[in-house]
Structure formats: C-alpha cells, structure tokens
Amino acid sequence: MSEKNSVNKGLFEQAQAAVQSLTEKPSDEALLELYALYKQATNGDVSGDKPGFFDFVGAAKYDAWAKLTGMDQNAAMQNYVSFVRELGAEV
Fold first, then answer.
1. Given a cut of 80, is residue 25 above it in pLDDT?
2. For labeling, which of 25, 39, 40, 50 is most exposed (least CB within 10 Å)?
3. Do 10 and 76 meet the contact criterion of CB atoms below 8 Å apart?
4. Is the per-residue pLDDT at 16 higher than 60?
C-alpha cells in the first residue's frame, strides 16, 4: 500500500470517528450516503442479493450502495471524508 493510500485510510478512520461527534443527527438521505460510501470504501462493489420488498431500510441501503458500483475504493474513502466535512465534522 502506498503512503498516499495509508494517509487516506487514516483520514477515513478519523472521519468515521468524527461522524459520532456530530452535534446534529444527519438526515436519512445523508445517513444513506454515509453508509454507501463506507461500504464502497471498505468492501468495494455491492454484493449479495437485494433485501426483500418488506425490508425497506435494507433495500434502501442496498440501492444506495449499488449506485456507487464501479467507484474505486480509494475514491470512496476520499468522498466519505469530504462528505463528513460537509456535515460539519472536523476531520
């Protein structure tokens, strides 16, 4: 792993911690974006079957993650950090 990737990973981990210290709970849309970026950064493209019709939350999470298919994991980490900063957290 290059030094640049390790710096990004460090910032990514700081951003994960910073989300917990937000003074205001993010909107549902923002939470889905955070989830999708986190999953793309840590797992890559969406995998597994989409949750069933009655699992509304699971299906929404799956769909949000699926929209990021093809995004590089490093780019997802950078986008996650940027988004956390937009939400007002210091990273």
1. yes
2. 25
3. no
4. yes
Amino acid at 45: D
Cα dist. 58→21, 40, 45, 65 in Å? 25, 16, 16, 11
- Compute CA 56 distance to the chain's CA centroid, rounded to the nearest angstrom: 19
Give the per-residue pLDDT at 1: 46
Residues of 33-72 as b/e, b for ≥16 C-beta within 10 angstroms?
Answer: bbebbbbbbeeeebeeeeeeeeeeeeebbbebbeebeebe
Distance CA 51, CA 49 (A): 6
Domain boundaries, the chain: 3-86
Q: Which fold has domain 3-86?
A: Acyl-CoA Binding Protein (1.20.80)
